[in-house]
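Comment thread on ticket #2218

A.B. wrote:
> Attaching the input chain for the structure job we discussed in standup.
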Amino acid sequence: MDKIVLPTETSGIAASNLPLGRTAHFRFKIPIDHENSFTCDVPKQGSLAHLIKETTLIIWDEASMANKANLQSLHLLLQDVCDNKSLFGSKLVVLGGDFRQVLPVVPQKSLKQAVESSIVTSYIWTCLKRFRLTENQRAREDLAFCLFLLSLGNGELQSNECDYVRLPDGMIQHLNGERSYSRDCKCNISRS
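C.D. wrote:
> Ran it. Output below, let me know if you need it in another format.
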């Protein structure tokens, strides 16, 4: 029997990078307005429920940008469709993402409320096994740039959260013959 893998993304832009890419909302019919409903619109006898039952692996990329309600909705859907009360209905689910990047979008809410909507505050988070990737695959051809990105992401280039970060030589270049910025060019990076 073939192994079925369902790749999804949090954003439509990222999903467009996948063949037949789907956002998690679209793939699993996760409600957009989670304040009124947590229930995914997937009939237990429908074709999507059958596909989910046959699925071996679900990959959710950029999950760090998802609202915890979305993750919890998927968890409840998988439990229901698979008739299994284990985590994610005993399906293997891989959540990928860089938690140093973008928080979930929570319109007209405070930063605290945005952080509270992150999947790291979900009751599911403590049940997950976490892996930390430390090698930048995209930048491995340029070791200096790779080390810069890792140091930046780890907060090693700043003495406090709102400090300036010195950019490496040659990182910023103007087009059309304009001069390049000097070594003293600084970029204010806020790590809220």
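A.B. wrote:
> Thanks. Noting for the ticket: The first strand starts at residue 4 and ends at 9.
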